[in-house]
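New to this. Comment on this protein:
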Amino acid sequence: MTPGRPSIDTWLEEIKSGGETAGVGMFLAHNGIVRASSRDGRAVTGMELAVDRERLAQIVETARLMEGIAHVRVWVNEGTLDVGDDIMYVFVGGDVRENVFGALQALVTMIKTEVVAETERYE
C-alpha cells in the first residue's frame, strides 16, 4: 500500500527500475471511480467511503501469495467523494495473464466486500 494518492506510472517505473521484473509477463491496473448512477439506476451525487486499513493490509499480503503474482500495490481513498473521484487503484504484476487477471479480479472483489464501506449520496 502507498500512502497518499499514488501514480500507477510511478509504481510501474519503480518496479522496472528496481530490476524486479524477472518472471513478470504482464501488469494490470484497476482505477475505480465514483459513478453518477447507482447499480439500480438512481442518480448519485457522491459517496462517503470508509476503509478498514488493517484488513486491506491483510488482503494485499494474501494477494502477493497467489500463484504467479510478483507485485501488488493498492491505494484506497477515504472520506467524502464526488462523482468522478478515484475510489481505488489496484495494480498487479505476474507471470501469465490467467494468473494476473484472476488475482486482480479477486483482489478488487475482496476490497469491495471486506475492506470498504460505501454510502452513496443521492439527489
